[in-house]
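Reopening this ticket.

The earlier resolution said the output was attached, but the attachment link was broken on my side. Pasting everything inline this time so it's all in one place.
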Amino acid sequence: MTSRSLARHMWHQIEPVHATLYFSPHAFEEAAELGYDVGSRWPSYFAWRTAPMGAAGPRLVAATFYSFSPSMIAEYVPAVWAVATPRQVLDARRRAVDRTLRALYAEAGALEEAAELAVKAAQSAELAHRPLAAANLDLPWPDEPHLALWQAYTVLREHRGDGHLTALSAAGLDACEALVSFASVGAAPDAGFAGRGWSAEEWAAARERLAARGLVDADGRATPAGHALRDQVERLTDELAAGPWQALGEAGAERLAELNRPLLGAVFEAGLLPMTSTLGIGKVRVPA
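Inline output:
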């Protein structure tokens, strides 16, 4: 397995486990206890994901989250810090993950070896230009194996995400164009990206800019050049995400995937995650 394919394979293993936080009923209960409006998932999402960086302002969040509309971010940030401090959010986040993973996988204590492997990979990550990965790696490691595993997965998925922004920048795609071009290759329907807050006018303008570059056709579908550019983005994303998995080694990564499989299966069986993802897992072709 090449380093790029290993990085993508392991992303498929860890992303669903990490993402349970944003959809778990236990997380919404913890968020409500803090005082957040849980009628929408966005107030707690921005709090959970941003808290490792401290009381971040809207520009920092827009820079690190990238694909969300700055105007949408401004609806929630910095207002989320008037509800709870980053420290309170991080404490609640840990409780939410604890409750969620224990409910999903009764043998949470059996994840010690998996946690050791994941922490080793996370601690080997190169952190230059990786603000979200670095912020999560600065947090103290939990003693409980399932919590340490989730934190390591969070470092690794944010490490990949930080690198993905580098790949998008190298491709000359701004925040809205990144989503429009992703939709154009069939990663998810246009409507699936509505939660990112871009207006219909902003989406149409981004599509026009991509069309002017020959990347999408009149119907918004990717042209051969558009597919090639998205392949470039996916290829570079995988390359930039490969370091921790190279450090762990293919055998170590495969052992982690084996140990993770029951937990991953429990995540899917619980039906916590949306049926249509905007991540493109299983939808985006893997470039050679």
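Reporter confirms the inline version is readable. Residues 3-270 form one domain. The first helix runs from residue 3 to 19.
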